[in-house]
Amino acid sequence: MKIIYFSFTGNVRRFIKRTELENTLEITAENCMEPVNEPFIIVTGTIGFGEVPEPVQSF
């Protein structure tokens, strides 16, 4: 299973790197519209009052 993540401040990126998982993908402006054709889990932080960041909503 692929782990897809978005890191606004770098904290989520550091967390994912520490897991040493290999099948990961960071959501960026360049790849946010690419389809994912396998099961995945999205990992992200929240902003404000628990809101999901816009790039993750668009993904």
Automatic annotation (TrEMBL):
GO molecular function, one term: FMN binding
UniProt source species: Staphylococcus aureus
Protein name: Nrdi
PANTHER family cross-referenced by the UniProt entry: PROTEIN NRDI
Cross-referenced InterPro entries: Flavoprotein-like_sf, RNR_NrdI
UniProt xrefs under Gene3D superfamilies: 3.40.50.360
Regions that span the bilayer: none
